[in-house]
Write a structure and sequence with these properties.
Number of helices of chain B: 14
Shape of chain A: globular
Number of domains of chain B: 3
Strand content of chain B: 5-15%
Structural class of chain A: alpha/beta
Low-confidence stretches of chain B: none
Shape of chain B: globular
Number of strands of chain B: 14
Radius of gyration of chain A: 14 Å
Number of strands of chain A: 11
Oligomer: heterodimer
Strand order of the largest sheet of chain A: 2-9-8-7-4
Strand content of chain A: 25-35%
CATH topology of the largest domain in chain B: Aconitase, domain 3
Helix content of chain A: 25-40%
Mean pLDDT of chain B: 93
Order of helices and strands of chain A: EEEEHEEEHEHEHEE
Largest sheet of chain A: 5 strands, mixed
Chain lengths: 144, 403
Amino acid sequence: MTPSDVRTTGVDVLVPGQCCGKPMQIEPLSFWGGFDSSDGRVIDRFHPAHTISLTGHILFMAHARGSSSGASVLAEAIRLRTAPAAFCLLQRDAIIAIGAMVAQRLYALPCPVLVFRDADRWSDLATQNRLRIDATPDGVDIEA
Amino acid sequence: MLAGGRGAAAADALELMLGFAQAVGADRLLRCDRAHIDGCLYHGQASLDFVERYVALGGRVCVPTSLNVGSVDLIHPDLFRGDPALGTAGKRLMQAHVELGCAPNFTCAPYQTLMRPRYGEQLAYAESNAIVFVNSVIGARTARYGDFIDLAGALCGRVPHFDLHVAENRLARTRLVLEGVSGADVEEAGLIAVAAGLFIGRECGAEICAIEGLPQVTSEDDLKALGAAAASSGAVAMFHAVGLTPEAETLAAATGGAEVSVIARLDREMLGQIVASLATVSDGARLSAVALGTPHFSLQEFERLLQLCEGSFAVPVYINTGRDILTELTQRGWDKRLSDAGVALVVDTCTYVTTIIEELDGAIMTNSGKWAYYAPGNLGVDVAFGTLADCVASAKAGRVVRR
């Protein structure tokens, strides 16, 4: 990858920010009732990622599920530094976006939220070893 | 406003609202007429930090704003039996919202107060039963707002132009037909409403359903129970009750004239089976309490209850209601009659979200589909379900009986 093709197209930035981390792809999760903000683990017994820690991972999740209280749980997890490092979604998701926006305002802690229009590109990035994300309101750079 | 002309808090809230509008793909913002905020239940330090920040910025809500239940009954604090530290944080969360200018009504049924929305108003409403009620029964317009964004809407007075704010998104996409129950009596009508609500929640998800054939005596309280049940078993934000709700004078009005398929036809027996499935105990089981008022009991429901409750109860009857209704009860002297009969009135909160009920070892009976749906998980209790008359008869008997 050369610096000139670093700028990624086909991605909407819902919440800007910078981060790097290891990608992890999971099924849609309800943060309220499905995730423990105190230790960053999935607590939904019926979720395939049950007991796995999401902390610091760049989470590839098509969309979120469940109660809008998920926004509070995510904001609390970002405060406690147990949250994922970033979200790469396939659908716009207000619960995730609001949780991340609020944490950024309250604690100045970044948790970028991106929506991919290209599912192949999304799947490809999800299998990389490590990603660096630099998202601004004008666009996003994603480096593998 | 973004530049701070209406204060730092309004500017900040508007920024958040614009981010939300972008996240949901809305093209513009609308003026918001009213808000109802579900921020008083404590989910952690971030809940409190969010509100305290607006208090520190000198924020004031700029539209009439009601508050949902909190974790504590501020009028009867001795009823609270949970962790004291959580109780303190929960109490501060409630007070901080009041400092922002929200009305301290702490009710999940703000539509039963003077703050009832009007037809056609654009709202920033949170709390699932309130959302479905104002959309369906009043014809006001709100999306399913929730944590943080409800307060942001109240502080900046704007909501995004999307979802149920837009007329064409409010039409029914599916139909449910009830057969042979249009002549049901007042007691059975309550049960049918809960059954229909549970059914559309399960089967329709977030899709809007037009319900045909509800009993002619179906009351506003029954529609309240229907919506609350639908929003518990599913993500329902609106339904139409043909001939009963304002945007469904006819089936054609509810669907916009489109052909809409029938998802199911339910008769009396099938409806009875749906509510029977809520119970985790059999008839005859010993009760430790009866829980009513989820959503908060209305004055009309208290009136019906008083007609039913001659004699005294063998087990405590807890009834959640709002402060405004409590004031009305006191003015009428009904509060005394209720406490003489063995009723514990709970205001500002609800018996399914917080630790109030003292004895949890026997089953608890309710006429609320919502309470029956959530309490086994939240409180770890056994549940019996029945009509209001069944609940009263069972409270007198101390075990589950039918009238």
